[in-house]
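Limitations

Structures in this collection are predictions, not experimental determinations, and the ligand pose is part of the prediction. Treat each record accordingly. The example that follows, with flavin-adenine dinucleotide as the small molecule, is included so readers can see exactly what is and is not provided: the inputs are given verbatim, and the output is the predicted complex.
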Amino acid sequence: MEPDYLILGSGLSALTFGALMANSGKTVQILEAHEHPGGYGHTFTMAKKYTFNAQFHYVWDCGEGQTVNRVLKKLGLDREVTFEQYDPNGFDHMRMPNYALDIPSEPKELIQRLSALFPDYGDRISKFVNEVEKTGTGLKKLSPPIKLIELLKHPDEIFCTAQYLHSTLQDVFNKFQLPQAAQTLLALQWLDFLLPPNQLSFYAWVALFRGYQAGAFYPTQHFESVINALVKVIESHGGQVLLNHEVTNFRVTNRTVTGVQAIDLITHQTHEFTGDTVICNIDPKKAAKMIGEEKFSKTVRRKLNYEYSASNFMAYCVVKDLDLRDYGFGKWNLAHSGHQDLNESFSQMYDHHDFSNPSFAITTPTLLTRVSRDCPEDCQIVEFLTVANYDYFNQLRKSDVKAYNQKKQEILDSILDVVEKNYVPNFRKYMVFHITGSPTTNERFCWSPNGNSYGSILTPRNMGLGRLNYETSLKHFYFCNASSGYPGFAPTIWTGTLLYQRLSGDVILGDR
Ligand SMILES: Cc1cc2nc3c(=O)[nH]c(=O)nc-3n(C[C@H](O)[C@H](O)[C@H](O)COP(=O)(O)OP(=O)(O)OC[C@H]3O[C@@H](n4cnc5c(N)ncnc54)[C@H](O)[C@@H]3O)c2cc1C
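Predicted complex:
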Protein backbone atom coordinates (compact mmCIF):
# COMPACT_ATOMS: atom_id res chain seq x y z
CA MET A 1 0.00 0.00 0.00
CA GLU A 2 1.19 3.52 -0.80
CA PRO A 3 2.49 5.27 2.36
CA ASP A 4 1.34 8.73 3.35
CA TYR A 5 4.98 9.80 3.40
CA LEU A 6 7.75 8.36 1.26
CA ILE A 7 10.99 9.68 2.76
CA LEU A 8 14.25 9.64 0.81
CA GLY A 9 17.25 9.30 3.13
CA SER A 10 17.42 8.58 6.85
CA GLY A 11 19.44 11.54 8.13
CA LEU A 12 18.38 12.98 11.46
CA SER A 13 15.90 15.50 10.04
CA ALA A 14 14.22 12.72 8.03
CA LEU A 15 14.07 10.34 11.00
CA THR A 16 12.63 13.08 13.21
CA PHE A 17 9.97 13.93 10.64
CA GLY A 18 9.22 10.24 10.03
CA ALA A 19 8.97 9.39 13.72
CA LEU A 20 6.65 12.31 14.43
CA MET A 21 4.41 11.44 11.50
CA ALA A 22 4.36 7.73 12.37
CA ASN A 23 3.56 8.62 15.96
CA SER A 24 0.62 10.70 14.74
CA GLY A 25 -0.84 7.73 12.86
CA LYS A 26 0.51 8.34 9.36
CA THR A 27 2.18 5.62 7.32
CA VAL A 28 5.85 6.20 6.61
CA GLN A 29 8.39 4.48 4.37
CA ILE A 30 12.05 5.48 4.31
CA LEU A 31 14.55 4.58 1.59
CA GLU A 32 18.17 4.76 2.72
CA ALA A 33 21.18 4.02 0.51
CA HIS A 34 23.56 3.13 3.35
CA GLU A 35 23.55 -0.08 5.37
CA HIS A 36 23.04 1.96 8.57
CA PRO A 37 20.35 4.57 9.27
CA GLY A 38 21.22 8.08 10.49
CA GLY A 39 23.30 9.69 7.70
CA TYR A 40 26.14 11.60 9.36
CA GLY A 41 24.70 10.39 12.66
CA HIS A 42 25.19 6.69 11.86
CA THR A 43 27.31 4.45 14.07
CA PHE A 44 29.78 1.82 12.90
CA THR A 45 31.86 -0.86 14.60
CA MET A 46 35.43 -1.75 13.63
CA ALA A 47 37.49 -4.84 14.46
CA LYS A 48 34.31 -6.19 16.10
CA LYS A 49 35.01 -4.24 19.30
CA TYR A 50 35.39 -0.50 18.69
CA THR A 51 32.27 1.56 18.09
CA PHE A 52 32.36 5.08 16.61
CA ASN A 53 29.78 7.61 15.59
CA ALA A 54 30.49 8.86 12.08
CA GLN A 55 30.40 12.59 12.74
CA PHE A 56 28.48 13.79 15.79
CA HIS A 57 30.68 15.02 18.64
CA TYR A 58 28.72 17.29 20.93
CA VAL A 59 25.31 18.88 20.64
CA TRP A 60 23.17 21.65 22.10
CA ASP A 61 19.50 22.43 22.77
CA CYS A 62 18.96 19.13 24.66
CA GLY A 63 18.14 20.44 28.16
CA GLU A 64 14.71 20.33 29.78
CA GLY A 65 12.23 22.32 27.70
CA GLN A 66 14.66 22.85 24.82
CA THR A 67 13.97 21.73 21.23
CA VAL A 68 15.34 18.18 21.43
CA ASN A 69 13.71 17.51 24.78
CA ARG A 70 10.32 18.69 23.53
CA VAL A 71 10.48 16.45 20.49
CA LEU A 72 11.59 13.45 22.54
CA LYS A 73 8.74 14.08 24.99
CA LYS A 74 6.25 14.17 22.14
CA LEU A 75 7.56 10.77 21.02
CA GLY A 76 7.59 9.35 24.54
CA LEU A 77 11.38 8.95 24.35
CA ASP A 78 12.58 11.51 26.89
CA ARG A 79 13.25 8.87 29.57
CA GLU A 80 14.91 6.46 27.18
CA VAL A 81 17.10 9.02 25.40
CA THR A 82 18.95 11.07 27.99
CA PHE A 83 22.00 13.29 27.83
CA GLU A 84 25.20 13.93 29.76
CA GLN A 85 26.27 17.51 30.09
CA TYR A 86 29.71 18.78 29.18
CA ASP A 87 31.49 20.75 31.87
CA PRO A 88 29.73 24.15 31.98
CA ASN A 89 32.90 25.66 33.42
CA GLY A 90 34.72 24.83 30.20
CA PHE A 91 33.07 22.78 27.49
CA ASP A 92 35.56 23.78 24.78
CA HIS A 93 39.23 23.99 25.76
CA MET A 94 40.93 26.31 23.27
CA ARG A 95 44.69 25.93 22.98
CA MET A 96 47.27 27.81 20.91
CA PRO A 97 50.93 28.73 21.47
CA ASN A 98 51.17 30.83 24.67
CA TYR A 99 47.40 30.92 25.24
CA ALA A 100 44.73 28.71 26.78
CA LEU A 101 41.06 29.53 27.26
CA ASP A 102 38.30 27.23 28.56
CA ILE A 103 34.96 28.52 27.26
CA PRO A 104 32.46 28.72 30.13
CA SER A 105 28.67 28.82 29.94
CA GLU A 106 28.44 32.17 31.67
CA PRO A 107 29.09 35.20 29.42
CA LYS A 108 30.30 37.22 32.44
CA GLU A 109 32.85 34.56 33.26
CA LEU A 110 33.96 34.54 29.62
CA ILE A 111 34.54 38.29 29.78
CA GLN A 112 36.59 37.84 32.95
CA ARG A 113 38.74 35.06 31.55
CA LEU A 114 39.42 36.91 28.31
CA SER A 115 40.10 40.18 30.11
CA ALA A 116 42.62 38.42 32.34
CA LEU A 117 44.43 37.20 29.21
CA PHE A 118 44.20 40.56 27.44
CA PRO A 119 44.08 43.18 30.24
CA ASP A 120 44.32 46.16 27.87
CA TYR A 121 41.21 45.09 25.98
CA GLY A 122 38.68 44.46 28.77
CA ASP A 123 36.26 47.09 27.54
CA ARG A 124 36.22 45.87 23.93
CA ILE A 125 35.92 42.25 25.02
CA SER A 126 32.97 43.03 27.22
CA LYS A 127 31.24 45.00 24.44
CA PHE A 128 31.82 42.16 22.00
CA VAL A 129 30.43 39.48 24.32
CA ASN A 130 27.39 41.64 25.10
CA GLU A 131 26.77 42.15 21.39
CA VAL A 132 26.89 38.38 20.91
CA GLU A 133 24.27 38.01 23.65
CA LYS A 134 21.99 40.57 22.06
CA THR A 135 22.36 39.10 18.57
CA GLY A 136 21.66 35.64 19.94
CA THR A 137 18.41 36.81 21.52
CA GLY A 138 17.45 38.59 18.31
CA LEU A 139 18.15 35.49 16.22
CA LYS A 140 15.91 33.37 18.44
CA LYS A 141 13.06 35.86 18.03
CA LEU A 142 13.60 35.95 14.28
CA SER A 143 13.66 32.18 13.78
CA PRO A 144 10.42 30.56 12.65
CA PRO A 145 7.70 30.38 13.81
CA ILE A 146 8.07 34.16 14.17
CA LYS A 147 5.75 35.95 16.60
CA LEU A 148 5.15 39.64 15.89
CA ILE A 149 4.52 40.39 19.54
CA GLU A 150 7.95 39.00 20.45
CA LEU A 151 9.59 41.23 17.82
CA LEU A 152 7.82 44.27 19.23
CA LYS A 153 8.89 43.38 22.76
CA HIS A 154 12.59 43.21 21.79
CA PRO A 155 13.27 46.09 19.35
CA ASP A 156 16.86 46.57 20.54
CA GLU A 157 17.82 42.97 19.97
CA ILE A 158 16.06 42.84 16.60
CA PHE A 159 17.81 46.00 15.44
CA CYS A 160 21.18 44.75 16.68
CA THR A 161 20.70 41.43 14.89
CA ALA A 162 19.48 42.93 11.62
CA GLN A 163 22.67 44.98 11.16
CA TYR A 164 24.74 41.79 10.94
CA LEU A 165 22.76 40.13 8.16
CA HIS A 166 25.71 40.32 5.78
CA SER A 167 28.52 40.12 8.36
CA THR A 168 31.17 37.51 8.80
CA LEU A 169 32.57 36.74 12.24
CA GLN A 170 35.73 38.57 11.13
CA ASP A 171 33.73 41.74 10.34
CA VAL A 172 32.47 41.78 13.92
CA PHE A 173 35.89 41.00 15.40
CA ASN A 174 37.18 43.98 13.39
CA LYS A 175 34.33 46.23 14.51
CA PHE A 176 35.19 45.58 18.15
CA GLN A 177 38.95 45.56 17.44
CA LEU A 178 39.68 42.43 19.42
CA PRO A 179 43.33 41.38 19.58
CA GLN A 180 44.28 38.64 17.13
CA ALA A 181 44.89 35.97 19.79
CA ALA A 182 41.51 36.67 21.42
CA GLN A 183 39.83 36.25 18.03
CA THR A 184 41.52 32.91 17.55
CA LEU A 185 40.60 31.64 21.02
CA LEU A 186 36.96 32.65 20.48
CA ALA A 187 36.77 31.10 17.02
CA LEU A 188 38.68 27.89 17.71
CA GLN A 189 35.49 25.83 17.43
CA TRP A 190 35.77 26.64 13.69
CA LEU A 191 35.67 22.88 13.01
CA ASP A 192 31.96 23.06 13.88
CA PHE A 193 31.52 25.10 10.69
CA LEU A 194 34.64 24.19 8.72
CA LEU A 195 34.98 27.85 7.86
CA PRO A 196 37.43 30.46 9.14
CA PRO A 197 36.23 33.79 10.64
CA ASN A 198 36.65 35.75 7.40
CA GLN A 199 34.09 33.55 5.61
CA LEU A 200 31.82 32.39 8.41
CA SER A 201 28.41 34.03 8.90
CA PHE A 202 28.29 35.89 12.21
CA TYR A 203 24.74 34.54 12.67
CA ALA A 204 25.93 30.93 12.35
CA TRP A 205 28.72 31.52 14.86
CA VAL A 206 26.44 33.25 17.38
CA ALA A 207 23.74 30.56 17.16
CA LEU A 208 26.22 27.76 17.82
CA PHE A 209 28.37 29.58 20.36
CA ARG A 210 25.38 30.58 22.46
CA GLY A 211 23.73 27.22 21.92
CA TYR A 212 26.69 25.48 23.51
CA GLN A 213 26.93 28.11 26.25
CA ALA A 214 23.34 27.27 27.18
CA GLY A 215 24.41 23.61 27.50
CA ALA A 216 26.71 21.27 25.58
CA PHE A 217 25.51 17.65 25.65
CA TYR A 218 26.33 14.09 24.72
CA PRO A 219 23.76 11.22 24.69
CA THR A 220 24.11 8.87 27.68
CA GLN A 221 23.89 5.82 25.40
CA HIS A 222 25.79 7.48 22.55
CA PHE A 223 24.25 8.85 19.34
CA GLU A 224 23.33 5.38 18.16
CA SER A 225 20.62 5.26 20.84
CA VAL A 226 18.98 8.39 19.43
CA ILE A 227 18.94 7.06 15.88
CA ASN A 228 17.73 3.62 16.99
CA ALA A 229 14.97 5.11 19.15
CA LEU A 230 13.61 7.13 16.21
CA VAL A 231 13.74 4.11 13.90
CA LYS A 232 11.93 2.09 16.57
CA VAL A 233 9.11 4.65 16.74
CA ILE A 234 8.69 4.46 12.97
CA GLU A 235 8.74 0.65 12.86
CA SER A 236 6.54 0.15 15.91
CA HIS A 237 3.85 2.21 14.17
CA GLY A 238 3.98 0.03 11.09
CA GLY A 239 6.48 2.17 9.17
CA GLN A 240 9.48 0.86 7.29
CA VAL A 241 13.13 1.87 7.00
CA LEU A 242 14.54 0.13 3.93
CA LEU A 243 18.34 0.18 4.07
CA ASN A 244 20.65 -0.36 1.06
CA HIS A 245 18.11 1.33 -1.24
CA GLU A 246 19.58 4.11 -3.35
CA VAL A 247 17.17 6.49 -5.05
CA THR A 248 18.23 6.88 -8.66
CA ASN A 249 15.31 8.64 -10.30
CA PHE A 250 12.16 10.62 -9.57
CA ARG A 251 8.66 10.23 -11.00
CA VAL A 252 7.18 13.65 -11.75
CA THR A 253 3.87 14.33 -13.50
CA ASN A 254 2.43 17.83 -13.92
CA ARG A 255 4.89 19.30 -11.43
CA THR A 256 3.78 16.72 -8.87
CA VAL A 257 6.29 14.26 -7.44
CA THR A 258 4.57 10.90 -7.16
CA GLY A 259 7.42 8.53 -6.40
CA VAL A 260 10.94 7.36 -7.14
CA GLN A 261 12.97 4.56 -8.59
CA ALA A 262 15.49 2.98 -6.25
CA ILE A 263 18.09 0.31 -6.67
CA ASP A 264 18.48 -2.37 -4.03
CA LEU A 265 22.25 -2.29 -3.54
CA ILE A 266 22.30 -5.90 -2.34
CA THR A 267 20.28 -7.56 -5.12
CA HIS A 268 20.98 -4.83 -7.74
CA GLN A 269 17.32 -4.86 -8.68
CA THR A 270 15.46 -1.64 -9.36
CA HIS A 271 12.07 -1.00 -7.74
CA GLU A 272 9.41 1.69 -7.96
CA PHE A 273 8.19 3.40 -4.80
CA THR A 274 5.28 5.80 -4.53
CA GLY A 275 3.94 7.96 -1.74
CA ASP A 276 1.15 10.43 -1.26
CA THR A 277 3.80 13.01 -0.28
CA VAL A 278 7.53 12.67 -0.91
CA ILE A 279 10.02 14.06 1.60
CA CYS A 280 13.56 14.61 0.36
CA ASN A 281 16.43 14.18 2.82
CA ILE A 282 18.83 13.80 -0.14
CA ASP A 283 20.86 16.94 -0.78
CA PRO A 284 18.31 19.29 -2.43
CA LYS A 285 20.62 20.41 -5.22
CA LYS A 286 21.44 16.82 -6.13
CA ALA A 287 17.75 15.86 -6.04
CA ALA A 288 16.85 18.88 -8.20
CA LYS A 289 19.42 17.77 -10.79
CA MET A 290 17.83 14.29 -10.85
CA ILE A 291 14.36 15.80 -11.25
CA GLY A 292 15.35 18.49 -13.77
CA GLU A 293 16.08 21.97 -12.41
CA GLU A 294 13.82 23.58 -15.01
CA LYS A 295 10.80 22.07 -13.25
CA PHE A 296 11.39 24.24 -10.15
CA SER A 297 10.23 27.84 -9.76
CA LYS A 298 12.71 30.65 -10.34
CA THR A 299 12.82 31.47 -6.62
CA VAL A 300 13.60 27.91 -5.60
CA ARG A 301 16.18 27.60 -8.38
CA ARG A 302 17.92 30.69 -7.03
CA LYS A 303 17.93 29.24 -3.52
CA LEU A 304 19.25 25.94 -4.84
CA ASN A 305 22.24 27.71 -6.27
CA TYR A 306 24.32 27.26 -3.11
CA GLU A 307 27.93 26.27 -2.71
CA TYR A 308 28.67 23.25 -0.54
CA SER A 309 30.37 23.57 2.82
CA ALA A 310 33.94 22.33 3.06
CA SER A 311 34.66 18.71 3.79
CA ASN A 312 36.73 17.16 6.55
CA PHE A 313 39.34 14.69 7.68
CA MET A 314 38.53 12.41 10.62
CA ALA A 315 40.70 9.99 12.57
CA TYR A 316 38.88 7.47 14.77
CA CYS A 317 41.40 6.13 17.29
CA VAL A 318 41.49 3.80 20.29
CA VAL A 319 44.08 3.99 23.06
CA LYS A 320 44.75 1.19 25.55
CA ASP A 321 46.12 1.37 29.10
CA LEU A 322 46.02 5.16 28.95
CA ASP A 323 43.64 7.30 30.97
CA LEU A 324 43.28 10.53 29.06
CA ARG A 325 41.94 12.20 32.20
CA ASP A 326 45.52 12.16 33.51
CA TYR A 327 46.48 14.41 30.60
CA GLY A 328 43.92 17.18 30.86
CA PHE A 329 41.05 15.56 28.98
CA GLY A 330 37.55 15.17 30.39
CA LYS A 331 33.98 16.31 29.78
CA TRP A 332 35.10 18.83 27.17
CA ASN A 333 36.61 19.04 23.70
CA LEU A 334 40.06 20.34 22.99
CA ALA A 335 40.67 22.58 19.97
CA HIS A 336 44.24 23.32 18.94
CA SER A 337 45.74 25.86 16.59
CA GLY A 338 49.43 26.14 15.83
CA HIS A 339 48.74 29.46 14.08
CA GLN A 340 47.76 32.78 15.59
CA ASP A 341 45.51 33.46 12.61
CA LEU A 342 42.75 30.96 11.79
CA ASN A 343 42.12 32.51 8.38
CA GLU A 344 45.66 31.71 7.37
CA SER A 345 45.59 28.33 9.03
CA PHE A 346 42.43 27.38 7.10
CA SER A 347 43.89 28.51 3.81
CA GLN A 348 47.10 26.59 4.44
CA MET A 349 45.18 23.33 5.02
CA TYR A 350 42.22 23.77 2.69
CA ASP A 351 43.74 25.60 -0.28
CA HIS A 352 47.34 24.38 -0.07
CA HIS A 353 46.83 20.95 1.56
CA ASP A 354 49.65 21.82 3.92
CA PHE A 355 49.07 20.24 7.33
CA SER A 356 52.52 20.90 8.77
CA ASN A 357 51.08 23.28 11.42
CA PRO A 358 47.52 22.00 11.79
CA SER A 359 44.48 23.30 13.61
CA PHE A 360 42.20 20.48 14.74
CA ALA A 361 39.71 19.33 17.38
CA ILE A 362 40.02 16.37 19.75
CA THR A 363 36.95 14.66 21.18
CA THR A 364 36.90 11.88 23.74
CA PRO A 365 33.40 10.33 23.77
CA THR A 366 34.24 7.62 26.30
CA LEU A 367 35.03 10.33 28.87
CA LEU A 368 31.46 11.62 28.55
CA THR A 369 29.77 8.29 29.05
CA ARG A 370 30.55 4.58 28.85
CA VAL A 371 28.44 1.71 27.65
CA SER A 372 29.76 -1.81 27.28
CA ARG A 373 29.65 -1.67 23.49
CA ASP A 374 32.08 1.25 23.08
CA CYS A 375 35.35 -0.60 23.40
CA PRO A 376 37.03 -2.92 25.95
CA GLU A 377 37.27 -1.58 29.54
CA ASP A 378 40.98 -0.82 29.33
CA CYS A 379 40.51 1.31 26.19
CA GLN A 380 39.29 4.82 25.42
CA ILE A 381 38.14 6.36 22.15
CA VAL A 382 39.74 9.53 20.78
CA GLU A 383 38.72 11.32 17.59
CA PHE A 384 40.56 14.01 15.64
CA LEU A 385 38.85 16.34 13.18
CA THR A 386 40.15 18.88 10.73
CA VAL A 387 39.26 20.39 7.36
CA ALA A 388 40.07 18.76 4.01
CA ASN A 389 39.51 19.69 0.40
CA TYR A 390 37.18 17.41 -1.58
CA ASP A 391 38.58 18.16 -5.05
CA TYR A 392 42.10 17.43 -3.91
CA PHE A 393 41.25 14.13 -2.20
CA ASN A 394 38.91 13.03 -4.96
CA GLN A 395 41.61 13.59 -7.55
CA LEU A 396 44.21 11.80 -5.43
CA ARG A 397 41.97 8.81 -4.83
CA LYS A 398 41.11 8.50 -8.51
CA SER A 399 44.64 8.93 -9.79
CA ASP A 400 46.78 7.28 -7.12
CA VAL A 401 45.30 5.33 -4.22
CA LYS A 402 48.70 4.96 -2.60
CA ALA A 403 49.22 8.74 -2.58
CA TYR A 404 45.68 9.19 -1.23
CA ASN A 405 46.43 6.85 1.68
CA GLN A 406 49.78 8.50 2.26
CA LYS A 407 48.15 11.93 2.48
CA LYS A 408 45.69 10.67 5.09
CA GLN A 409 48.59 9.19 7.07
CA GLU A 410 50.56 12.42 6.72
CA ILE A 411 47.68 14.43 8.22
CA LEU A 412 47.28 11.97 11.09
CA ASP A 413 51.03 12.00 11.76
CA SER A 414 51.12 15.75 11.79
CA ILE A 415 48.25 15.84 14.32
CA LEU A 416 49.84 13.12 16.46
CA ASP A 417 53.15 14.99 16.52
CA VAL A 418 51.33 17.99 18.00
CA VAL A 419 49.47 15.77 20.47
CA GLU A 420 52.68 14.11 21.67
CA LYS A 421 54.51 17.42 21.96
CA ASN A 422 51.76 19.36 23.75
CA TYR A 423 49.24 17.02 25.37
CA VAL A 424 50.04 13.29 25.69
CA PRO A 425 53.70 12.22 25.45
CA ASN A 426 54.12 8.90 23.61
CA PHE A 427 50.48 8.87 22.50
CA ARG A 428 51.30 6.58 19.60
CA LYS A 429 52.60 3.92 21.99
CA TYR A 430 49.10 3.53 23.43
CA MET A 431 47.19 3.71 20.15
CA VAL A 432 45.91 0.20 19.39
CA PHE A 433 43.55 1.07 16.55
CA HIS A 434 42.95 3.89 14.10
CA ILE A 435 41.07 4.46 10.91
CA THR A 436 40.88 7.67 8.94
CA GLY A 437 38.12 9.23 6.86
CA SER A 438 38.48 11.81 4.08
CA PRO A 439 36.05 13.89 2.01
CA THR A 440 35.53 10.93 -0.31
CA THR A 441 34.65 8.75 2.68
CA ASN A 442 31.80 11.17 3.45
CA GLU A 443 30.64 10.87 -0.13
CA ARG A 444 30.85 7.07 -0.19
CA PHE A 445 29.20 6.38 3.16
CA CYS A 446 26.83 9.33 3.57
CA TRP A 447 26.13 10.10 -0.08
CA SER A 448 27.01 13.76 0.53
CA PRO A 449 27.93 15.59 -2.70
CA ASN A 450 31.54 16.83 -2.62
CA GLY A 451 31.80 15.25 0.83
CA ASN A 452 30.17 18.43 2.18
CA SER A 453 30.07 18.40 5.97
CA TYR A 454 27.36 20.89 6.82
CA GLY A 455 25.21 21.08 3.68
CA SER A 456 25.34 24.51 2.08
CA ILE A 457 28.34 26.64 3.08
CA LEU A 458 27.68 28.76 6.18
CA THR A 459 28.58 32.13 4.69
CA PRO A 460 26.39 35.23 5.25
CA ARG A 461 24.83 34.73 1.82
CA ASN A 462 23.49 31.31 2.80
CA MET A 463 22.45 32.28 6.31
CA GLY A 464 20.28 35.19 5.21
CA LEU A 465 16.91 35.64 3.64
CA GLY A 466 17.78 33.66 0.50
CA ARG A 467 18.26 30.41 2.42
CA LEU A 468 16.43 27.38 1.11
CA ASN A 469 13.61 25.97 3.24
CA TYR A 470 11.24 23.01 2.86
CA GLU A 471 9.33 24.63 -0.04
CA THR A 472 10.21 23.01 -3.38
CA SER A 473 7.57 24.65 -5.63
CA LEU A 474 6.63 21.13 -6.79
CA LYS A 475 3.48 19.53 -5.48
CA HIS A 476 3.52 16.84 -2.79
CA PHE A 477 7.27 17.28 -2.47
CA TYR A 478 9.29 18.85 0.39
CA PHE A 479 12.97 19.23 1.23
CA CYS A 480 14.04 18.12 4.70
CA ASN A 481 17.79 18.21 5.44
CA ALA A 482 20.57 20.44 6.76
CA SER A 483 20.66 22.63 3.64
CA SER A 484 16.91 23.25 3.68
CA GLY A 485 16.96 23.90 7.43
CA TYR A 486 20.11 24.13 9.51
CA PRO A 487 23.00 21.70 10.08
CA GLY A 488 23.71 20.03 13.42
CA PHE A 489 21.96 17.59 15.75
CA ALA A 490 19.45 19.98 17.34
CA PRO A 491 19.02 22.04 14.15
CA THR A 492 18.18 18.98 12.02
CA ILE A 493 15.75 17.74 14.70
CA TRP A 494 14.26 21.25 14.56
CA THR A 495 14.17 21.11 10.74
CA GLY A 496 12.27 17.79 10.71
CA THR A 497 9.91 19.02 13.42
CA LEU A 498 9.15 22.27 11.65
CA LEU A 499 8.14 20.38 8.51
CA TYR A 500 6.04 18.00 10.61
CA GLN A 501 4.30 21.00 12.19
CA ARG A 502 3.70 22.55 8.78
CA LEU A 503 2.17 19.38 7.28
CA SER A 504 0.26 18.12 10.32
CA GLY A 505 -0.91 21.35 11.93
CA ASP A 506 0.35 19.98 15.26
CA VAL A 507 2.49 22.34 17.37
CA ILE A 508 5.48 21.17 19.41
CA LEU A 509 7.84 24.14 19.23
CA GLY A 510 5.30 26.95 19.15
CA ASP A 511 6.34 29.08 22.10
CA ARG A 512 10.13 29.01 21.97
C1 LIG B 1 32.74 16.18 10.47
C2 LIG B 1 31.39 16.51 10.98
C3 LIG B 1 31.24 16.79 12.31
C4 LIG B 1 29.98 17.12 12.81
N1 LIG B 1 29.86 17.33 14.14
C5 LIG B 1 28.68 17.69 14.64
C6 LIG B 1 28.55 17.89 16.03
O1 LIG B 1 29.47 17.69 16.81
N2 LIG B 1 27.35 18.32 16.50
C7 LIG B 1 26.30 18.55 15.68
O2 LIG B 1 25.26 18.97 16.18
N3 LIG B 1 26.40 18.31 14.34
C8 LIG B 1 27.55 17.90 13.81
N4 LIG B 1 27.67 17.65 12.48
C9 LIG B 1 26.54 17.99 11.58
C10 LIG B 1 25.48 16.93 11.51
O3 LIG B 1 26.09 15.66 11.50
C11 LIG B 1 24.60 17.10 10.27
O4 LIG B 1 24.21 18.44 10.11
C12 LIG B 1 23.34 16.26 10.30
O5 LIG B 1 23.60 14.96 10.77
C13 LIG B 1 22.73 16.23 8.91
O6 LIG B 1 21.49 15.56 8.92
P1 LIG B 1 20.57 15.54 7.64
O7 LIG B 1 19.19 15.25 8.10
O8 LIG B 1 20.79 16.73 6.80
O9 LIG B 1 21.00 14.25 6.82
P2 LIG B 1 22.37 13.54 6.45
O10 LIG B 1 23.10 13.16 7.66
O11 LIG B 1 23.08 14.31 5.41
O12 LIG B 1 21.81 12.22 5.82
C14 LIG B 1 21.29 12.13 4.52
C15 LIG B 1 20.94 10.68 4.28
O13 LIG B 1 20.40 10.54 2.97
C16 LIG B 1 20.94 9.35 2.39
N5 LIG B 1 20.92 9.50 0.93
C17 LIG B 1 21.56 10.43 0.18
N6 LIG B 1 21.34 10.20 -1.12
C18 LIG B 1 20.53 9.11 -1.19
C19 LIG B 1 19.93 8.40 -2.27
N7 LIG B 1 20.13 8.74 -3.54
N8 LIG B 1 19.14 7.34 -1.96
C20 LIG B 1 18.91 6.98 -0.67
N9 LIG B 1 19.47 7.60 0.37
C21 LIG B 1 20.26 8.66 0.12
C22 LIG B 1 22.37 9.30 2.92
O14 LIG B 1 22.92 8.02 2.83
C23 LIG B 1 22.16 9.76 4.36
O15 LIG B 1 21.88 8.69 5.21
C24 LIG B 1 28.87 17.22 11.94
C25 LIG B 1 29.02 16.91 10.59
C26 LIG B 1 30.26 16.54 10.12
C27 LIG B 1 30.42 16.16 8.69
